[in-house]
Amino acid sequence: MTELPAAEESVRVFLVDDHEVVRRGLRDLIDDEPDMRVVGEASTADQALARGPALRPDVAVLDVRLPDGDGIAVCRELRSRMPELACLMLTSFDDEDALLDAIMAGAAGYVLKQIKGSDLVSAVRTVATGQSMLDPATTARLMRSLRSPETARPPEDERLAALSERERSVLELIGEGLTNRQIAKRLYLSEKTVKNHISRLLGKLGVERRVQAAVIAAQTHEHEATGNG
User: Fold this and answer.
1) Distance CA 210, CA 175 (A)
2) Do residues 42 and 15 lie in contact, with contact meaning Cβ atoms separated by under 8 Å?
3) What pairs with residue 38 in β-bridges?
4) Domain extent listing, the chain
């Protein structure tokens, strides 16, 4: 696991929200922490794209809804210019479509604005270390909704065809929400072997995070369950 930067190399945070009061509150929260600091702000998508890259942030806290666009598109564009950037999406409502879009855009986390200040700071810290910070209950519900016929989406046939039988087994278990340790136990493998399989299958699927792979697994499961696979 990547270690947090030392205090003198504090986590650089970029705030994108169209409400000044929200930005001010976030700035106060983050700047109060010894290991992180706000390096810039933006209130629109255009401002975010113009200012973000020059500030070289480690984490961008992005409002999902912006007056001239959406934070998910900003996340995708900023990460195309700064692949190491961790994006934490902030929204005032629980929107499953936005969550799915955020995951597939490479967002590292997705939190509701009702979150406590201390939990938001923890979320910034978590994504700064390269980990994902997605509310488990929300993610589990998303996986269930992806498996229902009403929200069936086309599977990623070409990318899945590149997976070995073992990689497909690992992907299916990722889709069930199992940890590496649980997958290793289920498949009688070492955790290191499971980790290697996951690295390879993420590369073949063209995604970075296991939660993105889990979404693809859920979509595939639904496709096969309806007899089209």
Assistant:
1) 9
2) yes
3) 13
4) 7-134, 143-225
Choose from 8-22, 30-44, 101-115, 182-196 the range with maximum mean pLDDT: 30-44
pTM greater than 0.70 (yes/no): no
pLDDT at 229: 44
Distance separating alpha carbons of residues 166 and 201, to the nearest angstrom: 10
Q: How many whole angstroms from its chain centre is CA 121?
A: 16
The architecture (CATH level 2) of 143-225 comes to: Orthogonal Bundle (1.10)
Q: What is the pLDDT of residues 28-58, one digit of tens each?
A: 999 999 999 999 999 999 999 999 999 999 9
- Residues 19-35 have pLDDT tens digits of 999 899 999 999 999 99
Token duo for residue 28 = 């106060």
User: Which run of H or of E encompasses 188?
Assistant: none
Work out the burial of residue 200: count CB atoms within 10 Å of its CB; fewer than 13 is exposed, 13-18 middle, 19 or more buried: middle
Read off the tokens for 98.
């936005």
Whole-angstrom distance, CA of residue 61 vs CA of residue 64: 10
Fold for 7-134, please state it. Answer: Rossmann fold (3.40.50)
